[in-house]
Every structure is written in C-alpha cells, then in structure tokens.
Give the backbone structure.
Amino acid sequence: MFETIMGLSRYNNLMWSGFLETMYMVGMALLFAIIGGIPLGVMTTITRPNHILPNKFINFILDGIINIGRSIPFIILMVAVIPLTRLIVGTSIGTTAAIVPLSLAAIPFMGRITDNAILEIDQGVIESAQSMGASPFQLVFKVLLPESLPAIILGLTLTAISLVSYSAMAGAVGGGGLGDIAIRYGYQRFQLAIMLETIVILVVVVQLIQYFGNKIAGLFDHRS
Amino acid sequence: MIKINNLTKHYQAAQGKVEAINGLNLEVNDGEIFGMIGPSGAGKSTLIRMLNLLEKPTSGSITINGTDLTALSSQNLRAARQKIGMIFQHFNLLSSRTVLENVAFPLEIAGVRKKKRLKKAADLIELVGLADRIDHYPSQLSGGQKQRVGIARALANEPDLLLSDEATSSLDPESTRAILELLARIREKMNLTIILITHEMGVIKDICDRVAVLEAGKIIETGSVIELFSRPKQSLTKKFISSVIDFNIPSRVAKYMKAEKRGELIRVSFVGEKSHDPYISHLVKHYSVDANILYGNIDEIQGVPFGTLILGLEGELDKIEESTAYLKSQGLAVEVLDNV
Ligand SMILES: Nc1ncnc2c1ncn2[C@@H]1O[C@H](COP(=O)(O)OP(=O)(O)O)[C@@H](O)[C@H]1O
Ligand SMILES: [Mg+2]
C-alpha cells in the first residue's frame, strides 16, 4: 500500500500537468460556448413564432444548426473536423488543437440550453416589458438574459462537466490532459494505480464544478 | 380621449377562426375609471391588449389623445407605450430585480438617468405604501404587495392611461379592496384615466364611473355604474349584478307569498337620496293600501344608496294600480312580480 502511494507520488508532476491541460481545454471550450452558444440560443428563441422577433427562416436555420451539432457523436466530430483544426491551429494534435472540436460540441449544446432557459420565462413578463415600450434589444439584455441567468449558469455547469469527459476522449487521440494519461499509463502500460488516480481526480473535478455551479446559480436566483 | 372605432380581432386557431372582438365601438373620457365586465372568453383581454397594441387589431382604429395607435411606426409605438401603463393579473414582475429595480425598470427603458430614476422609483414605492420592502425581491412579497409594485411600475413614466387586466382577480378580498382603493386614490392624484377589465361585478361597483358589458366580442350594454345597477337591460347584466346585490326573493318570502297571496307583489328599486323619502307611508296614507315590506336590501354604490324592496300591497285593485303608478312617477323602478 505504502509503496503504491510512494510510487504514485513519482507521477505527481505528470498528474499536475495533465490536470492543467484538462482545465485549459475545458476552460477555453467553455469560453467559446459562452461567446458562441449563448447568442446562438438567444437568436433561436427570439425568432420562434410568437416570440419577440419571429422569423421562420432564421429560426429554421439556427434550430437546425443546434440539432445537427448535438446529434454528431463527439468521437466522430473530433475526427471530422481535423482539416478545420489544422487550418485554425496549424496542427491536429495537442491540447490547443483539441479545443476546436470541444468548442464545436459545446456551442450547440449551450445554444440549446440557452434556448430552453429563455423559453422558461413567463410570456407575461416579456409582455409587461413590451407594454412599457422596450425594444427587442432591451428585451434581450434587460429581461431575457437576466431572468434566465440562473438557468444559464446551471447550463454552463452541465456543459463544463460534459467537456471534462469529452476532453478525456480527446486525450485518447493525442489531445493531452488527464484522459491521455489514463490511457497511456493506465491502459497501455497497465499501471492500474495511475488510471485510478486520474479517475479520482476527474470525479473530484466534476464534483467541484457542480458544487460551484449550483452556488453561483443560487446567488442569482431570486425566484424563491 | 380614447376612441375605439369598429375594432375587430380574429384569431386563426387550429379549430378554425375565432372572432374574439367583433366591430366594437367605444369612447372613454379623460379621467374616468372605465370598467369592462364579461364572462370568460368574452374578449376582454383581447380588447385591453389591443389598447397598447400588444395584440394587433385585424381591423378598426384605436385613437388615444388624437393619435391612431394602429398607424404608428414601431419606434413611435414604443414611445406611445411609455405613456400607457399596464397592470396584470399575475403581476409579471421581473424576478431578478428588487422592488426598487422593478419600479425603475420602465424609466430605464425610457432612458432616464440612474440617479433620477431611482429617486422617482423610491417616491412611487412610498406612494403605494411599500417603503419598507424596497430592497425585497418579488418572491418575498404577498400577492397584494406584488400588485402594488406592479402599480408603482406602471406609473413610473407618468402615463395618461392605465390599463388593468384582471388586476385583482388573483387576490384575496382584503387585498382586492386595498388595491382598488389605491387605484381610486392615484386616479385623483395623478389625473389618470383607468380602463379596467374584470369578471367581478364587485370591482365595477366599487370604483368604476362607467361600465361596458362584453359578450362574445361585442359590447351589449353600457352606461354609468349607477344606471346599470338600477336599470339593467340585458339578462347577462342582471346576472352580474345579482352576484353582488341580491335581487332574488328569499325562499322564505316566496313561500309566504305563495301561501297567502293577496293583492299584488311588487319590487321597488331606488337609487340615491330617494331612499330617504317616505314613500311607503305616503302610499298607506293616500292610496289606502297596506304595504307589507317582505324583503328589503339597501346597499351603497360608491357612497350612493341603492336599494331593493319587495312589497306586498293589499287593497282594492285600482288603488294598487294607482299606487304603483305613483311610485313610478317618483322615479323608482317598479316591477310587478306575478310568478314567484
Ligand atoms: N392567441 C389566441 N389564439 C387563438 N384564440 C385566442 C387567442 N387569444 C384569445 N383567443 C380566443 O379569443 C376569445 C377571447 O379571449 P380573451 O380575450 O382572452 O377572453 P377574456 O379575457 O374575456 O376571458 C376566446 O375565445 C379565446 O379562446
Ligand atoms: Mg382575460
């Protein structure tokens, strides 16, 4: 037992850099999910029939993008976008390269979550703002986003957790991070302890993300 | 100030065309509280929501202070809406904002500077009696308090017109009374015109000056509240009135009258100062009929006495006829009840 632990401590540096790589991939993809996914979701909702800027055509396109993006299995997406990744990053291997498919998976996911969060807002609340003369722009930034903020934060939490597991998958094809370590040391060299340790770290990371996500969402939630 | 001309609203629903409002005409005067009552589905919400164009009319026009709302560009419509306050049955407050921020919200939309709008909002919150709740969130308030916030918010841009869509329908009787009193008070204070819709005749009776009865997308009867209560024409109007004023003869009286019907039974309704005049003793003295008061009910509509009496008149037939003619000549509404 003691020897196993001492043995593991030899890999502390390895684990730490794996952890940082995972956080880097997840963090960057989350950033793109916010920048890309939230506007995508907002545009999808408000162009729905009976919403504030109904537009059948735009809604059809955006809704389609979200559905297609969400239905491609991540492992396939990862391979399919290799040319694009090369174009953007210059290589298709490494943590930075992995951010491309991770972001492309996270954006439609976050889009749907935002769409659902905004749809939850009572139509009457939106109408009351319209009755005061709010413009569509004001409606989005003063009503739709603030009112759905707790749900959007919970959605980001969910996205972050999905990204942790996707990033492990990306690791398997040379993306780096904890997943990469689990495969290379745990699976290929059959160092079970290392595999277990990466799993423990991943579990703790997921727990922490969920914990802080709930906390932050709670800070903004004044509904009860 | 408000003129509604030949207004119609048709919905294309899955089950077919719904004619929610059908060629409706109406004028509402400056500074009055105008009530609209009607059963569920009559088109009340559709109508009031067209008054700030939340609902687009199928045809017809809505003119407020000389401006036809239906002809405005969307930008001008937004400006016009700032001068039309609206309150709702379910309050529709922003859950992410405090009381103060909710009331300041319409000012924010209108582009008023922060310091000024917070000051204005605080004053309005004071006016509606919620100063001690200014930093609470809506979820921490009772229904009546939420509606006070709704009212303060609707007043923020100093509107000329306030629209109220069933604003008291989800409140308990006590909060309802308090909210109606508040509305009456702000009407005086701010020289506001209020259009309110309700399915409760009690609301009309308490604060409206004039009222329209809506049925199937049309106004079937309109007039001052006193007129309507004292001389309802349509059966639907009578039904609404009977929900707040008991017109029906109690079964005890009905039984008595069946058992020993002598002479004539009449129902006399009176409004205002007439209730102080000694008609009955006059009848007895000058027409030599006996008048039994079988049932009586005196109520008040906004401080005006309003009553119903059921009299059993006994005596010679022509005397009875003369006495009912006398009562009518005094401006009382008299109805002979033959089939009780
Ligand atoms: N968006 C809509 N689509 C189709 N029918 C509607 C719509 N809104 C209202 N209606 C119909 O119009 C009629 C009047 O509704 P409403 O104005 O809400 O009545 P009220 O407020 O008097 O209860 C009802 O028959 C209702 O079903
Ligand atoms: Mg209604």
In short: Residues B 44-45, 166 surround magnesium ion (ligand 2) (CB under 6 Å). The two ends of chain A are 50 Å apart (CA to CA).
